[in-house]
Design goal:
mainly alpha, disordered C terminus, globular, 75% helix, homotrimer, 17 helices
């Protein structure tokens, strides 16, 4: 128990997110918002609306998990310190003279550091969501996965929804469907921590948090440096989709004659499924063809 | 009390929905989803999104009533058994080789059986919603009607809303307005069971459940066999709308001169109101003319 | 304490809203709904949907504050008396023969009286929201401001959202952004009453309620009589925006060279900011030019 390794991971899992990691999270979120087209102009025209959007970017995951558990969505406002912290970061990011913050943030090392620290907060959010959901529904493992996922990666859903209401985002079925890499890795983490919570994984939580955080930060920084959306799950997804949905292909002939109209699309993209995750374009082309 | 009839209805009202009626409900909901254009292809492309939509189709009413009562919308996920049941039905319905399920479901008797059993679950949902709302607001009869209605027929609202967010459904005021037959009959049942709950109907609940279920199943199956949207409420609705909104017609002359711009539409469709429910086309034509 | 002035304001702050002020509020809301294009025709075609919209207009603020605090949005339905009151006002407003209500409401004095009484209810709502939020989050002053604001001016948000879902309102970023005068004054009142609640304002609540109500009614009636959207906050807003966001202008040169693409809009509208509130057109023109 008191092996140095254990002490290290235990101390790591007890790290407080409050001042520094939260700041990194808010900084990355606000800068992501600022780089949206028209966001800077909007901040000058209507600071209140821009501030509201920035808060949604910073606290979206918590808001979504509150909605899903029927808790006050405004709870995050009760934590005045974090709100003021995020607000001041929003203020200096948008209204700093000479745009010093953007210039400083444009340096790659700064971005890497901030992004890495933001990924650390993601692990903490997932764990918090899973344990919080567990306090609601004992062993309701589906709820635990959903809440951990919502708190870790729900911000994008909230912000997309806000853009939808504001009319500056026209949704398309395609966009809605395909999960981002962040959503996938958060879902994976949520599943892992849920199994650990329900004692199906024989590993202590602080070790798991350490390993998952290292994995998150490593992949994130690698993706930022190489600027390639590397897919560590592509092969895994292929195998899974092959197992679950691919084996029907041997029945294609009978399917062909048994089905008539809309299911032809199904078979069409089922043939393109095994290579779908590997190359998006192929799928796109196939769907184009079948539509 | 112990008359055989009473015992029969009492035993009927104590029937458990769990394995078989729920399966029928899930089957009908999933098949309705599968027959939407592009749903089958979407299931191949993004199974997770298709599964999510299927869950909304299966548990939409409960989700809506949870939202309206500020209960966790995710509660239905805590009942793992039903979720796994619905998921497996979704899986075999979408990915069964040679599409055996669709072929089996294409036989009319199977559809009639499944639809009838689904209507039985509707009665149970209405009663559950009314009693649940009563536990919140003693004698808050409007809330009881609303919750019973939401749980019985709210699934379509939830799924429409999801399609709206996904952008694959462009709402029109017309669509939003006109209630489906299901919504009307569910509203009727919700009102009846609310009155029974508030002791304004001198009939025992199990008898009422029996009669209402028989009425639901009979009308549903008749509509499916004759393939005509028979309107058992048309005459009733006409009388009601005549009583409430029709008697102003004798004042049309003074209304004509008293009103100028927008109310002309009002008078225009008021003349077409008494026959509105009888023939939709007439109303459509009138509204076209007045718009 | 027992000065006649104190007694007057105390008695005023204890005035019950129930029959008369609520009626005025419902009347103004329903008439605002009726004057929307197509609302009268819609009431003839689908009375239920029109009634639902009218309820949203009458109780929207309460519904929004309930949603934000995770309370049942349907709670307003539990107060049957008010619901029936609002429903009957909706009924006579839409279906009264010869449209007597609209004719009576078309007289300016009636409108002034009703609008003034509606503004009185606004103060009561703000105070109710602030105190209610305070019971949730002790000294969560941001939450108190938000809830007071939502309950006082949230009806428009709810109704806009409903129109968005019904598809008869296409949102634009511009519309979403700029706050109406009502929203601004409600926000001001919410801030003031929150400070009073947190003992940062050395004034008794009943005095504050009296003064704020007088201010609300006076400005509202003045605006209705002069038919000009007078901006009592324009100069204040200019000063504030000058203080917060205007001082970066001296750095424009360095900002010019430091920024490249998207921030040009920012600087463009920053120059137009000090006069933005004074003349909307100038801002519009600038934004046009920069977009």
């Amino acid at each position: 128990m008191d092996s140095p390794w254990n002490e290290l991971t235990l101390a790591f899992s007890r790290t407080s997110m409050f001042p520094f990691f939260d700041i990194a999270h808010y900084l990355v979120s606000v800068m992501a918002l600022k780089h949206q087209p028209g966001a800077a102009e909007l901040a000058w025209k209507n600071p209140l609306s821009s501030w509201f959007t920035a808060m949604l970017h910073c606290f979206g995951g918590g808001i979504l998990s509150c909605v899903l558990l029927a808790e006050p969505p405004l709870r995050f406002l009760a934590n005045s310190t974090n709100v003021l912290l995020a607000s001041s970061i929003w203020y200096i990011a948008f209204f700093c003279p000479c745009d010093l913050v953007s210039q400083g943030y444009s340096f790659l090392p700064v971005q890497l550091l901030a992004a890495g620290m933001k990924e650390v907060t993601r692990t903490w959010k997932i764990v918090g969501g899973v344990t919080h959901a567990n306090s609601y529904y004992k062993n309701g493992w589906i709820v635990m996965i959903a809440i951990g996922w919502a708190r870790g990666a729900g911000g994008s859903i909230i912000t997309n929804f806000e853009q939808l209401i504001k009319g500056c985002w026209k949704p398309e079925a395609e966009e809605w469907l395909k999960m981002s890499y962040t959503a996938k890795v958060t879902l994976l983490g949520s599943v892992i921590f849920t199994f650990q919570q329900t004692k199906h994984l024989a590993i202590s939580r602080h070790n798991l948090m350490f390993f998952f955080t290292v994995f998150l930060v490593a992949t994130k920084i690698t993706m930022m440096i190489t600027e390639t959306a590397l897919m560590p799950f592509a092969c895994f997804e292929d195998t899974l989709s092959q197992m679950l949905f691919g084996w029907q292909q041997k029945f294609l002939p009978c399917e062909k004659k048994s089905e008539t109209k809309s299911s032809f699309n199904g078979t069409g993209s089922s043939t393109s499924k095994p290579v779908a995750n590997a190359s998006e374009k192929v799928k796109k082309k196939h769907s184009k063809k079948t539509e």
